[in-house]
Amino acid sequence: AIESDTRLRISSEMRELAALELLTQAGGTAYKVAPHVNQDDMYRAVYDRLNKGECIGIFPEGGSHDRTEMLPLKAGATIMALGATAANPELGLKIVPTGLNYFHPSKFRSRAVIDFGQPIDVPAELVEKYRQGGDAKRQACDDFLSIVADGLKQVTLNTPDLETLKLIQAGRRLYQPTQHSLTMAQQVELTRRFIKGYTVYRDLPAVAELRDRMADYNMQLRYYGIRDHQVETMRVGRAEAGALFVWRVVWLLIMGLIALPGTVINAPVFVVTSVFSKRKARAALAASTVKVRALDVIATWKILIALVLVPFLYTVYSVLAVVFVRRAPTWAQTDVIKQVSTMSTVAIYLWAWALASFMSYTALVFGEQAVDIVKSIRPLFLTLVVGSEHTELLARQRQELSDDITELVNELGPQIYPEFSTTRISEQLGDGLTTHSNLINESADAFHRKMRMGEQALRQRINSTIGSRQTSPQSESTEETPLAGPSEDKPNQRRGSKYAFNPPTPRTMETLNSISPMEFLSTVTGAVLGTGSPSAESSDGKHEAGSQFEQTRRSTPEQKKGLFYFT
Known about the structure:
Order of helices and strands: HHHEEEEHHHHHHHHHHHHHHHHHH
Strand order of the largest sheet: 1-4
Oligomer: single chain
Distance between the termini: 55 Å
Radius of gyration: 31 Å
Shape: globular
């Protein structure tokens, strides 16, 4: 706050050396003064709208950002509310807090949830203080601003930093409510409750212990390059993983062929928006003190560029289509081209524009399905390379962590939310909204369902053919070892995880990186056909395969300890 022409009060500590040198230089520090702007006309227009019974939408933070907490609110909203009510006591003005919660704000077709909070009445005592003017008016605005801020916090996600938000989101994903499917609105509300619970109980030993275990689990996910929801897909044997790998690659090719035309015609949009938005984000980060990754800038510029570039490209494509039909060479004089050439130029142009739009939307819908398939291939690849005995340990660790988080939430939840009940989660969180559907979305979903049905039939056939899968001594010992349970002599002590992460040795990673595509394909084929069982050995105890990849895949217990070792 500026106290005088020569004195400035800083609200928070500055640690950057450049800023400290600038503030402590001998000749003083020069600063800019924002000129006074007469806003009487603006407030008068707002009051007129409110007196007519209309609504005013305002973003009280005064700017966009991608922080995990709200910025300090500007006083304009409170001045509007108090001023309008002071001038017209019968107005009955209410403020409705509205929260915008994004899942992936910088990506096209990403999801968002809009939450509406409880309407806030304008307190009569604050209106009276506002009428007095001076310090009383300023105090009334500050008090009402605090009320509005509390209302907004009830419909937004606020954490002190990004790491805390990631931790909360990981805990929410691992929590197991009664029903296993939550809408987007329910996910946001559940995350908000997790934030409140973590803020209250973060210093409890049980919470601190789970926090460390979740950090270790997230580290393993980053190391493997997978996400939490993909862990369960790794609980398959090599034969199943190989068959699913081939099956999904086939479906990926089908989805890719359907999305290819639209992807090609929109490739300039993807390239230009990506390059320019990232360039603008770097510039915004350099000039801002509140942005974290400038995702809001990336999203803004993607929209702005696409709004101009997409119509321009479709216009160019439509003009080229008209020229091609009117001047088609001899080899292109097909029956379709001849029939289209009988249409007017405007009709050809409009049909070409509509076709480009249809191809683009089809590419987006089927492309999203293809991206999901691509993400699901890596866990199968890891299962094929490192073996199911290692990926099974990661899945067990997740299940143990999920059980403990669910148990702790069910224990502490009623202390914060008296109406808490593990059997009424959906009723407490609300029903949320469902997304609409259309022919293209339904077609893509039908393709996805067919792929899943085929996978289930394929896995059943493999399991019935192979029967009970043979396991190595190391795997058998892992299977027979029970999960650590609560101590009998200390019933209130929560069990600790028995899994500790030890990354692969450099030599192991060098071996894995040296796998050629042909060696990998031969391994997949062997797993699908059942000819490459990881436990298959010759009668003298030697490994049958001679390739370097087979030696790694069929390693001894000592070699496996250097690969992915859990204690």
